[in-house]
What we know:
This protein has a two-stranded parallel ribbon. The protein is built from 3 helices and 2 strands, in the order βαβαα. By secondary structure, the chain is mainly alpha-helical.
Amino acid sequence: MVIVGAGIVGASVAYHLARQGQHVVVVEQAHPAAGATGSSFGWISEGVPEGAPDAFLRREIVADWMRLAQEIPDLWVNWSGALSYGQAPATQNPDNRVCPPPR
């Protein structure tokens, strides 16, 4: 099986076919993630309110990436965290304070 392109889609297809025992060859013009995949601003985050339409999908995505990190020790995923801003849900910050009051 020949996969053309080593972006996120080509790499994923190649990986999953190889896991199923297929002989896979990936052909890439430059280097892995040289195109849209390497230039995109994307992140892996489950930091959305529980009722958000994509909350379940985001949790599943994080779980999949953690599974891949276990399966592929050389996979580099930057789990650097995030900064959220705006009003916090009432359950997290009942007084809606950004900083503690001055003393």
